Structures are given as structure tokens and as C-alpha cells.
Amino acid sequence: MAKKKKKEKKAMQVWKLYTVSGDKIERKNKFCSKCGAGYFLAKHKDREPCGKCGYSEFVSKKEE
After folding, report:
1. Count of C-beta atoms within a 10 Å radius of residue 31
2. pLDDT tens across the length of the chain (64 residues)
3. 46 in the Ramachandran plot: left (φ > 0), alpha (ψ -120 to 50) or beta?
4. Which neighbouring-strand residues pair with 41?
5. Which one of 23, 30, 58, 59 counts the least CB within 10 Å of its CB?
């Protein structure tokens, strides 16, 4: 049987989670309320889940 090719993993792009304005560094995403500082919530269009514990905050749609 032929061996399967392994898919290369992409490097984690941590620099995309921060913005630099002047002398200050600001975080773009919120921290997880269960895991604490250092664990970010990912941004999706309808929710913000934690990658470590699975905690999710749902984003409500604005009604106009």
C-alpha cells in the first residue's frame, strides 16, 4: 500500500492578533473568560469560540 503524503502545517501568525499605534500595543481579539490571559477568542461571523476550552460567545445581529 502506498504511503500517504503528510500535509505541512502553516505557521501560527501571532502578529495578526495585535496592532501597534504609537508606543502602545493593542489586542484585536478578546481573551477567554474561562482560560484567562493568553488565550484568545477566534472571530467568526456569528460567534467567538476559544480554541482551548471550547467556550463560545455568540454575536447578536443588529436589527435596523
Report:
1. 14
2. 788 888 898 888 888 888 999 999 998 888 999 998 888 899 898 999 998 999 999 988 765 5
3. alpha
4. 50
5. 23
